Amino acid sequence: MRKRQAHTSLACADDRLLADRAVDGDAEAFAVLIRRYTPMMRAYVRRLLPGTAEIDDVVQETFITAWHQLPTLENPERVKSWLMRITSRKAIDRIRSARSHDGIDEIEPAAPEQITPQRQVEARAGVAALSEALQQLPAAQRECWMLREVGGYTYEEISHELGTPLSTVRGLLARARKDIIVRMEQWR
User: Fold this and answer.
1) Total domains in the fold of the chain
2) Contact criterion met (CB below 8 Å) for 176 and 147
3) Reduced to 3 states, what is the DSSP secondary structure of residue 13?
4) Do 2 and 94 share a domain, yes or no?
């Protein structure tokens, strides 16, 4: 009964307390963080990688890395963004190692079956055009765009993730968006 009560109280604890306890080696606290953030991390990785096994592998690798790097966590109340940065790095590493080029058509999920064949063809053609537009961007612009538009990162998180000044991130995203808009004009 006492263990269940401790488990319940941990489930209600804030991220800072859980992270602090996990840093001290409390596996139960870390397990609560795992349960709390796995669905969000899986949803994020699902947008980047095609297969369920790949998604689970990236999330598992993220938690293994996080457990080992917990002592380096400087700001425990930001454990969520810290975990998402690790997740992003792991997913991007997986993408880089899995193929020789970055193509959005290879990471987009298949269209749902209830969509008509004509709409499926149009959607795939649009994705192919977007993929082509992304391929023509410089690598830094493409990476910023993917983190912002696919990953949902804030400008500050992108800056931190890439080790790039915030003003540079803003400029890269502005140029990427402008170029994509021009290239995708026929799809409006």
Assistant:
1) 2
2) no
3) coil
4) yes
Look up the pTM and report it. Answer: 0.53
Say if residue 181's pLDDT is above 90. no
Range of the domain at 81: 1-98
Mean pLDDT of 143-161: 83
Give dist(CA 64, CA 18) in Å, integer.
16
Question: Where does the pLDDT of residue 50 fall: very low under 50, low under 70, confident under 90, or very high at 90 and above?
Answer: low
Q: Closest Cα partner for 163 from 73, 102, 89? A: 89
Domain identity same for 78 and 120: no
pLDDT in tens, 65-114: 999 999 888 888 889 889 988 988 888 888 777 554 445 555 555 555 56
Is the C-alpha dihedral spanning 147, 152, 156, 160 positive or negative?
A: negative
Residues 79, 131, single domain; the answer is no
Q: Which two tokens stand for residue 57?
A: 């592998």
Alpha-helix runs per DSSP H in the chain: 2-11, 15-23, 27-48, 52-69, 79-98, 117-135, 139-145, 155-162, 166-183
Instruction: Tell me the CATH number at 120.
Output: 1.10.10.10
